[in-house]
Amino acid sequence: MTAVLALTTSLMWGLADFGGGLLTRRMSALTVVVVSQALAMAVLGAIVVATGGWSEWGPQLWFAVAAGVVGPVAMLAFYRALAQGPMGVVSPLASLAVLVPVGAGLALGERPGWLQAVGLLIAVGGVMLAGGPELRGAPVQRRTLLLTLVAAFGFGAVLALIEHASTTMTGLFLALFVQRVCNVLVGGAALYAQVRRGTPALPEDGTGELGHPGYGRRVLTAALPALAFVGLADVAANGTYMVAAQLGPVTVAAVLASLYPLVTALAARGVLNERLRAVQAAGAGLAVFGTVLLATG
């Protein structure tokens, strides 16, 4: 069951990233993050009220708060790294996020069998190769590498934190709601700072200040279903990962949940006709092989 839930996590995160990537072509990345998470927060708030989730309030929710604060920071660092440097370098380095929860699991005493250990190494290597690493080309700026490593640590920290945020189903909904509240607060503060610096939150129609003031709102309204999907898919992924990490070894759950770049790449291949590079295809094959070893080990 751990393997199934973790792979479901990868599917949801991969589709959410693909949808978010498409939306950022039409509006600010921070706008996508804040609106999608706000929509998810509203849905989760209704579920918490309906299920009486407030009764699960306790100190374990500090893990959800921490995940909700770290997540947007990591995402912002990731987007900025992608804007500054080649994706073929940034994406594989960001996939090192899996090492954080795996290391935490090992530190807490988890000891996978030898077959699972081999599967872990193969799957991690496959995820990195699936990003299409660029081994040649111009040197990458130190700032870009630093931002990428910050993003990787942040994504990994979210995986390590969120598993401790609840132990019951109603508590799961409350933890996810608290995480989304923090996501919106942190992302909203960053969006406000962006607007103060002169970058609009909503897209303009290309005619500058004399353009139609309602254009950006119309674009946002038309994108609301897609934004809701991105936010709810992210929520679903967090939920399935929390359950997977509680039912089985964190080392296995974390690696399988980190296969989402493959889902994003395959979605781009199917929808946008983007071709996988040879190194990405090889990485996908290794990741699948490592997954089989993890699931059967």
UniProtKB/TrEMBL annotation:
<feature type="transmembrane region" description="Helical">
    <location>
        <begin position="219"/>
        <end position="237"/>
    </location>
</feature>
<dbReference type="InterPro" id="IPR000620">
    <property type="entry name" value="EamA_dom"/>
</dbReference>
<feature type="transmembrane region" description="Helical">
    <location>
        <begin position="114"/>
        <end position="132"/>
    </location>
</feature>
<feature type="transmembrane region" description="Helical">
    <location>
        <begin position="144"/>
        <end position="162"/>
    </location>
</feature>
<dbReference type="InterPro" id="IPR037185">
    <property type="entry name" value="EmrE-like"/>
</dbReference>
<feature type="transmembrane region" description="Helical">
    <location>
        <begin position="168"/>
        <end position="193"/>
    </location>
</feature>
<feature type="domain" description="EamA">
    <location>
        <begin position="144"/>
        <end position="295"/>
    </location>
</feature>
<protein>
    <submittedName>
        <fullName>DMT family transporter</fullName>
    </submittedName>
</protein>
<comment type="similarity">
    <text>Belongs to the EamA transporter family.</text>
</comment>
<feature type="domain" description="EamA">
    <location>
        <begin position="3"/>
        <end position="130"/>
    </location>
</feature>
<keyword id="KW-0472">Membrane</keyword>
<feature type="transmembrane region" description="Helical">
    <location>
        <begin position="243"/>
        <end position="266"/>
    </location>
</feature>
<feature type="transmembrane region" description="Helical">
    <location>
        <begin position="278"/>
        <end position="296"/>
    </location>
</feature>
<feature type="transmembrane region" description="Helical">
    <location>
        <begin position="6"/>
        <end position="23"/>
    </location>
</feature>
<feature type="transmembrane region" description="Helical">
    <location>
        <begin position="30"/>
        <end position="55"/>
    </location>
</feature>
<dbReference type="Pfam" id="PF00892">
    <property type="entry name" value="EamA"/>
</dbReference>
<keyword id="KW-0812">Transmembrane</keyword>
<feature type="transmembrane region" description="Helical">
    <location>
        <begin position="61"/>
        <end position="82"/>
    </location>
</feature>
<keyword id="KW-1133">Transmembrane helix</keyword>
<dbReference type="GO" id="GO:0016020">
    <property type="term" value="C:membrane"/>
</dbReference>
<feature type="transmembrane region" description="Helical">
    <location>
        <begin position="89"/>
        <end position="108"/>
    </location>
</feature>
